[in-house]
């Protein structure tokens, strides 16, 4: 069983170049101190010692690295050593600016330049020497490059973080859309199938009761069962086609008209539910999407009335008020307990439909009956989606 290897930590190429520049300068100085024209120079050996110490301190970007660079700048101006050693102070300043905040880097650069100028122009420090302006330019360049590299890295980190957040946001959005789509399909299946299955149940009982006593009545009931079953299969086929589609597909809903409402009410009256209506024409002042939601509410509420009520239902539709139409469906409760039980998903689905359109929904016992009341907007929001109707 192979062990997982730890991630390889990449070296900072900019820091590598800075270390190499300082190391090459120190090597050049060491050769010159031993065998070159500056052999035996005390100042050169001091520069080499300070440079080596500063290079070791630069690994942690210690403040002492900047102090060493400042001392080297003053020494280089006062007693120029071999031409290569002037780069040691600049390399140390660059390594410091590469890893420290902007204020620290700029302060070190100013101190570096100030030390070079003081070594030339302050009399009590000895005065004289040359190359101060070159070291000032070197300080500006090293601090500028170091801070530029830091800025680039911060930008890259920020961009990576932004893209990661964007990816996470998109993933959450896709998950939310998937959940909403599943909920919508479940709601549509419940709304469409529950009614037809209620019809099938009622007509099956009628056929069983009249199978021997009145074969003609039983045959008509079985014909109604066949029609309702066919309707269920057709609506399930629409849902399955959507689920099987390779790309998201929106099935436009058929506009609800008076004929569809009459057919819906007639199907319930055909299974024995006595329905009284008031103001039904106000439904057609609703926007098409809200009208579809109203049809689904009627279908679900009447299904519940047929299964759990006393066989009567009252539908009241109010005139539009402040841009909303109030739809109320009330059914009486039977004197004896019913054996038919639901899971409550129908009420949840109705409430979700209404809230999706920006309306209000209430359902619960009222007196000796059960009332479902919904306020639907006469103008539906553009974002509302009602498909698979």
Summary keywords:
single chain, 389 residues, alpha+beta, five-stranded mixed sheet, 10 helices, 62% helix, 9% strand, rod-shaped, disordered C terminus
Account of the protein in words:
The chain has 389 residues and is an alpha+beta fold. It is built from 10 helices and 5 strands. 62% of the residues lie in helices and 9% in strands. It has a 5-stranded mixed sheet, covered by helices on one side. A hairpin with a 6-residue loop joins strand 2 and strand 3. Helix 6 packs across helix 9 (288-308) and helix 9 (288-308) runs antiparallel to helix 10 (345-356). It starts with 12 loop residues before the first helix and ends in a 12-residue tail after the last strand. The model is unreliable at 248-252 and 382-389 (pLDDT under 50).
Span of the ends, CA to CA: 56 Å
Secondary-structure class: alpha+beta
Sheet of most strands: 5 strands, mixed
Beta-strand segment tally: 5
Order of helices and strands: HHHHHHHHEHEEHEE
Q: How many H/I helical runs?
A: 10
Strands in their spatial order, largest beta sheet: 1-2-3-5-4
Mean pLDDT: 75
What does the radius of gyration come to? Answer: 43 Å
Question: DSSP strand (E) fraction?
Answer: 5-15%
Task: Characterize this entry briefly.
62% of the residues lie in helices and 9% in strands. The chain is of the alpha+beta class. A hairpin with a 6-residue loop joins strand 2 (312-317) and strand 3.
């Amino acid at each position: 069983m192979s062990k997982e290897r730890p991630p390889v930590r990449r070296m900072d190429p900019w820091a590598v170049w800075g270390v190499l520049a300082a190391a090459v300068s120190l090597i050049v100085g060491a050769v010159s101190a031993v065998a070159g024209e500056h052999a035996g120079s005390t100042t050169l050996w001091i520069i080499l010692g300070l440079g080596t110490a500063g290079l070791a301190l630069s690994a942690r970007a210690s403040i002492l690295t900047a102090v060493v660079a400042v001392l080297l700048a003053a020494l280089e101006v006062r007693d120029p050593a071999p031409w290569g050693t002037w780069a040691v102070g600049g390399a140390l300043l660059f390594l410091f600016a590469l890893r420290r905040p902007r204020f620290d880097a700029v302060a070190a650069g100013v101190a570096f330049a100030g030390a070079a100028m003081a070594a030339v122009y302050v009399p009590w420090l000895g005065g004289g020497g040359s190359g101060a302006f070159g070291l000032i330019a070197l300080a500006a360049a090293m601090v500028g490059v170091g801070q530029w590299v830091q800025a680039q890295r911060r930008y890259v980190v920020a961009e990576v973080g932004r893209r990661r957040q964007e990816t996470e946001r998109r993933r959450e959005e896709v998950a939310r859309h998937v959940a909403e789509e599943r909920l919508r399909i479940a709601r549509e299946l419940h709304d469409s199938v529950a009614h037809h299955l209620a019809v099938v149940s009622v007509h099956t009982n009628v056929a069983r009761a009249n199978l021997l006593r009145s074969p003609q009545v039983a045959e008509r009931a079985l014909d109604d069962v066949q029609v309702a079953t066919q309707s269920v299969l057709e609506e399930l086929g629409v849902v399955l086609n959507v689920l099987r589609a390779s790309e998201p597909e929106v099935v436009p809903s058929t506009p609800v008209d008076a004929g569809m409402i009459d057919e819906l009410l007639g199907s319930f009256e055909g299974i024995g539910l006595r329905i009284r209506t008031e103001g039904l024409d106000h439904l057609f002042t609703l926007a098409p999407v809200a009208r579809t939601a109203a049809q689904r509410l009627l279908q679900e509420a009447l299904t519940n009335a047929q299964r759990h009520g006393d066989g009567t239902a009252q539908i009241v539709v109010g005139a539009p008020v402040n841009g909303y139409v109030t739809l109320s469906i009330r059914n009486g409760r039977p004197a004896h307990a019913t054996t038919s039980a639901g899971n409550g998903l129908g009420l949840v689905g109705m409430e979700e439909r209404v809230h999706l359109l920006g309306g209000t929904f209430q359902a619960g016992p009222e007196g000796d009956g059960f009332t479902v009341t919904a306020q639907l907007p006469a103008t539906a929001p553009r974002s509302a989606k009602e498909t698979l109707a």
